[in-house]
Structures are given as C-alpha cells and as structure tokens.
C-alpha cells in the first residue's frame, strides 16, 4: 500500500455530513452550497448535452470558455492572461491544485500552508509526496506576517499556498499581507499557489485582491486557482480553472491531460454562459450572503459561541470552549445531538502544531436557502437558552 497515505483519512468535513444525515440534523458542516444554479448556466449545459457537444475538449479546455475567462480575469481580477497559453480549465479547482502539486514539485519538497487551512490542501500535498510546512497564525485575526512565514521555512521549501477569502476563517488577505508573502517568495524563490475559489463572496464592500495582480514579480511565480462551484452553486459539477505564466501552465496542462483528460465538456459550455451574467447577479449574491452571514453570526454571538466574523467566503468559525467538551469533535457531535445542527470540528483545519489547535472551535457553513438557515439559527438559539 502507498506509504504516503499513512495517517490520512477522509476529512471530518465528510464524516460530519454522514453523521448529520444519519441524525437528520441540518447540515451546516460540509460546504455543500445547495442553492439554485443560475438558469442560463443550467440551460446552456442541457443544450450542450442535447446537441451532443459532449466529446473531449483540449486538456486546457474549450477555447471559447478560455477567452471568456481571460476577459473576466482582466476585468475582475486585474490579471492579464493569454487564453491560448496561460489558462487551463480543470475538473474542479481541486484538480487544478493536483496539477500544481504534480506539475511543479518533486516528492520531498516543502510547501508552506498557513493555518487554519483547507484540509484538502494538506492531504493532497501529502499524497503527492510533498511535505506540508505549517505557518501558525494567531487567532482570532489569523494575520499573515513575514515573520510567521519565515519561521516555517526550511531548505526544502519550494512553495506557498494562499487561500483568500479563506476557508475556514473567512479572512481575506490585505495588500500588506500579500506583499509580505511576496517578499518571502522572492527571497526563497517559491511558487505561490493561490486558492481564490470564494472570490465572489465578499462582505462590507471589501475588495478581493488576487495576489498575482499585485506585481509582475508575483505574477511570474504564481498559479492562481479559481472555480465556478461557489459562484454558480454547482459544487458537484467540478469546474475550475488555473492561470499561470506559460512555462508553468504548460506543466499543468500536461498533468491535467494525464490525470483527467479534460473537464466535463457540456458543463464547460454551461459555465461559459455564466460569464455573460450581469454584475447585478454578483451583487445580489453578495447581498444574500451578507444577510445569511449576519443571521448565523448573530445567533452564535447571542448564545455565547463567539464567532470570527467572516470578511469573505461562507463559513464561520465559532468558539465552543464554553461547552467544556474534551475535543472539538466531541463538541460538534454534542452540539449536533442537542441542537440538531451539524458543524465541522475546528481540528479539521489545524495541524495541532501551531499556536491554535482548533480544539475550541467548530466551523459552520451558511451556504443554504434562507428558510433552512433561519431554522438552524432558531435551533441554535433554543439550544443556547437551555445550556
Ligand atoms: N469546500 C467544502 C468545505 O470545505 C467542501 C469540501 C468537501 O466536500 N470535501 O466544506
């Protein structure tokens, strides 16, 4: 058996979905995002299937979709990308990350991962033979600093993963934090891999900054990973994309071809229609998510599970230490049994080696329809009144 899988197991994100289904609880654990797909996106995919536009695309994806992505990158992200050479449409942003791991790194290479992290970054890196090097950030702000990055560097370090807006903390990197990351990346000659899957979900007028847009030097060493799962509520479609300078993109394309052949073709045609949606679609989505954030953050504050108010994305970390449970997993299970609302134990997002272990935290996902979320908030308040 593959030695690299030693100690790895499916994430608690998955385990909690199974536990929630078994208990009939409202699942605010896994980021499932069961909201309606924009009709134009769904219809374009259905049309593609009906018209038998269902054979392989190039490994880097449909040309029309890539040119739409390039236009969007220039307009929204401030990234200039040539659709012929710099963009790869991938089988979800997770596939883009896999292509990066296998295309740019060798087994034994170290990769810096600030925590709290999205556990799949860690697990996938280990499966590829890389060594995750955790950058412990201090709760509750989880600010990325040059010192914290420097402290985690070893001679083996070759890459840095940045997730903004962050799953699970909801933090968004500021320009200063990105500059700190750039200084370290320049000094130690690191690739910078950015996971920006939650780019369209931001609050309070905060601007999402794509690290690759901040300087030519940063762009030259960055792979920007984006996706459509969250923006169009199509987490099961598996449609994402990566942007990188041509020499790096070439490597990613090669791995994407070998591992996946191409992203699902009719679904590529579907998301292409999404790039024509007006700005008002994104504004409404942001406004809806802001209301949902306030609903859940309000309930958690009121019942004494102090939340880390998210700046972006659709997760909220809450402090459950007042429950006195031995572990975060115990706290999440107890909360689910007593309130009927499932969350994910905070330990799914921490290595246990940093300043914060996640033991006193759980994560809630609020990418849900309003009635479901209102019911969840009510259940949490009812639970809070009795404990
Ligand atoms: N990104 C989502 C989350 O963090 C879903 C992850 C998953 O299903 N593996 O919950």
What does this molecule look like?
With 387 residues, this protein is α/β, with parallel strands linked by helices. The chain folds into 2 domains: 12-30 and 279-384, Aspartate Aminotransferase, domain 1; 41-274, 3-Layer(aba) Sandwich (Aspartate Aminotransferase, domain 2). It has 13 helices and 13 strands. The protein has helices spanning 12-23, 39-50, 63-77, 93-104, 119-127, 146-152, 175-188, 216-220, 246-260, 265-274, 279-302, 328-339, 370-386; strands at 26-27, 87-90, 110-115, 131-136, 157-163, 191-195, 222-227, 240-243, 307-308, 315-319, 341-342, 344-345, 361-365. The strands form 3 sheets. The chain has a 7-stranded mixed β-sheet, sandwiched between helices. Strands 9-10-13-12 form a 4-stranded antiparallel β-sheet. It has a two-stranded parallel sheet with strand order 1-11. Strand 5, helix 7 (175-188) and strand 6 form a beta-alpha-beta unit. It is globular and about 60 Å long. The model has no long low-confidence stretch (mean pLDDT 97).
